[in-house]
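Section 5.1 Outputs to date
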Amino acid sequence: MEAIPGGSAALLAADEPSPVEVRRPRGRSAFVIVCDHAGARIPRALAALGLAAADRRRHIAWDIGAAAVARRLSATWDACAVLQRYSRLVIDCNRPLDSPTSIVAESERTPVPGNARIDAAERQRRERAIFAPYHTRIRALLDDRAARHRPTVLIAMHSFTPTYLGVARPWHVGVLYHRDPRLATALLAELRADPTLVVGENQPYAVGDATDFAIPEYGEKRGLLHVEIELRQDLIATPPGQRAWAARLAAALTRSLARCQER
């Protein structure tokens, strides 16, 4: 695992971890995995954003289980993985900076006191410390692969809560795309071959320019094969579930890529 320097000293203290975790930066696989909501850390300077400890562990703070699945896929494939360690409540690294949901004052009816009435200077401080280092590292890795003529297939790894605003979500996994459905179409076919799975197409979310960053910025603009994957959190909250889903996705994505390359 590669060590990355920390972010802005104005937000992150010297002993706080960098926002960026990079695994296998020179991995041999064509797959590159990004995990925007991998961690639930909050910089000490933000005083836990005024949230109770229980709320800081909930899905509103991070994508539960997604990082563990991403790390297992990285090891299985010998693939580069880039993970963001700080809570999406500090700044959401899968949102354009001008999005109203870049820094939220409320998430699933839970107020976030530390995000109420923040000014432009505070937004910029969080961008410099967390958003910019994370995306600068992804761009550098993708640029390096392009310069070395390495094939690259982008996997954006996420997870979703089983119940949102009191409504149960039936899907085990969601396969998301926007303008380019190539890899998503192949993956949907692979996953739907298992009759025990409920597979959502652009469910429980859909990718859009105003609501997402990684797929439009890195997949579409660079013309890379790509897909965003959403796993239901109760299925990957523990190591056995994480192992099972990493194995399932490793096989399904490998076959899906082969399908795309045959066309």
